[in-house]
Design a protein that fits this description.
The chain has about 90 residues and is mostly helical. It is built from 2 helices and no strands.
């Protein structure tokens, strides 16, 4: 069995994941900006439920954004490690 790794592809994937994580964190911030909007509902139960939903969505989106961002950074680190290992085993010719 042979495993081939293309560090450039890992770098690209890592960059895409970091960007996606940042986007998720931006969405979480926008959701947080709607906090309290449920208070406009005439029914107190509806208002409380909506406000609770906003809190949960913001928290979960933030956690997801951080996880995706961390995965992207780890992917970058893996690409760097593969390049280092390759260079140690077979130095590049200039």
């Amino acid at each position: 069995m042979e495993i081939r790794v293309v560090p450039g592809a890992l770098e690209g994937s890592g960059s895409a994941l970091v960007a996606a994580g940042s986007s998720l964190n931006d969405v979480a911030a926008r959701v947080a900006a709607t906090s309290g909007i449920g208070d406009a509902a005439a029914d107190g139960n509806v208002a409380a439920a909506f406000n609770h939903m906003i809190i949960v969505w913001r928290r979960e989106l933030s956690l997801l954004g951080e996880a995706v961002n961390t995965t992207g950074k780890a992917t970058h680190a893996a690409a760097d490690a593969y390049v280092t290992a390759d260079d140690a085993a077979m130095p590049r010719q200039l």
